[in-house]
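Obj.: predict assembly geometry.
Materials: sequence records (below).
Method: joint structure prediction, all chains together.
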Amino acid sequence: MSEESSRIPAERLESFITRAFVAAGLPDADAHAVARLMVEADLRGSDTHGVIRLPLYVRRIRAGGVNAKPNIRVLADRPSAALLDGDNGMGHLVMKRAAELAIDKAKATGIGWVGVRMSNHAGPAALYATMPLRHDMIGLYFAVGSNNHLPPWGGSESLLGTNPLAVAVPAGAEPPVVLDMAPTVAAYGKVRLKAQRGEAMPLGWMIDRQGKPLTDPKRADEGHLLPIGDYKGYGLSLIIGLLAGALNRAALGRDVIDFVKETGKAANTGQAIAALSIDTFMPADEFKRAIDRFIRDIRNSQKLPGVERIWLPGEQSHAKMLERRAHGVPMPKALRESLDAVARELGIASLA
Amino acid sequence: MSEESSRIPAERLESFITRAFVAAGLPDADAHAVARLMVEADLRGSDTHGVIRLPLYVRRIRAGGVNAKPNIRVLADRPSAALLDGDNGMGHLVMKRAAELAIDKAKATGIGWVGVRMSNHAGPAALYATMPLRHDMIGLYFAVGSNNHLPPWGGSESLLGTNPLAVAVPAGAEPPVVLDMAPTVAAYGKVRLKAQRGEAMPLGWMIDRQGKPLTDPKRADEGHLLPIGDYKGYGLSLIIGLLAGALNRAALGRDVIDFVKETGKAANTGQAIAALSIDTFMPADEFKRAIDRFIRDIRNSQKLPGVERIWLPGEQSHAKMLERRAHGVPMPKALRESLDAVARELGIASLA
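Observations (raw structure tokens):
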């Protein structure tokens, strides 16, 4: 965070985002629902997937690339699985609806799996994987990334995205275990950040189309990201793409548009969520106690020399959430300026 | 494969394994079911997870560590989720039963998720993830590895296994897409192979308890495997452990025994399988045609210089299966000798 960064209370950020979406044409309740989820992303520390995306979201709505008043509907419905059509609405709305449906199905049958098509970028994967937690369920989320930055292993053509996977498991006294990861070594947002800062990228983040290491983030367009574990990360990205994209008749491979550049075009983003009810397996309280014990075994296990602390997946994000709820969301100068520009463009009161 | 390797027709290998398990006390049908799956592992090219494990399996049965005549039963049953108790039977039998139940549930409700406890090592993950394929379903499989070889990220105590994940997606004219991976850079079997051959391991496979690179495979006990993508592979292993182990009241973390050394002890291995029916989303034929097109887009995309071919996950394994079905399973001299020893020990006709 730069020294010129200030803090904004979550509530203030939420009402600003709500105003912006209402001005962009969303119904009040929808604007508020998207704003809440975007602020939750910032609270969780997903700085590249929260309010920073507002200018792009608004640009896409105004360019006709996203439908401000979607009719989200169930295309196919079985007792434990369903397919939704998001009608090109904001991804947050589509995925919220999908998560609710998955949770209902899990209550009734033990597990619910809901896929969506004609959705859009929905922020960080953890937002949705964690929705089942309060119902004593495990959440699993898969999405097709909103850009292709990853080629097949051995290839030089980016036909795959940094397709994220998130799984959230409830704990008792401990924070929930929340894995939220893309199958690439670095997220594309980190590449952009390096470019902004004029820094070189470490070896292993990207290669160029000849397969040579690419460390200049300004040349990112001339290459692509590298998957974790070589062919393994490629396989993960591909499989996530099939589960979240192909199965839902959403865009995958050559059909994925560049949602930053092609603002007027529908992305047909695909996502999927599963909610798995713990009570099939044991009483939820018993499970959470077992998870607490396991978390502590991991945290208190022998450390490598020089390591201060062993973290559980999602633990740092949870700590950030507590801190930011208390002290506000960091607001770097550049971000505030871009939000001010959105306010002017939409004719709404600015954040300040 | 060494020059002293010969080929054994799959049928011959299958009847040898069946004989061995019958002699070890398994009912005929169970012995045959395990033999079929073990040979399928070898046909698929999972040389470290097929018949090579027979001596250990027999040793564990004879030492009382595995129950030859289990009463596999359903502990909890909901319309789309269930928990099985494997009664410490061979993992192959427990997981076959679990996959069948998951498929039945997916037929009835759209998706079926079945977890198992008191199971055992069941061979390669792909065996079970591919079972739903012939029913036009996608299969997902998660397992707790049968040994702890991976510490948390930053830790030096192996509290996690090379917990495998497999996902299988049906195609039409193309082979199915089958991802079968552990979240570590190298499998432990590869380390053993390097030790046998007297070769050094590449950097990045293992580190010692001080965090220093470990390249001598004979010193493998002094260190641990490294996860793919650093903390990401750690997170994957942990989450797979929660889904396959903790949720099923199976062993995880400190409760995981060393199933190679503690042959007389029940492992309480946990596994989970999900079957997801494609027909909720679209007719299976339409889906398979789309997958075929996507596979060809990937395969025919631009290659990096020097790359001959882009492979899909599971494609090389599928090619091996066709080749080995036609020409037999490779049988290196050392493996044959270990099988001869099993035959002598059990008083059955040898493979030759």
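Conclusions so far: The two ends of chain B are 19 Å apart (CA to CA).
To do: check interface contacts against the pulldown list.
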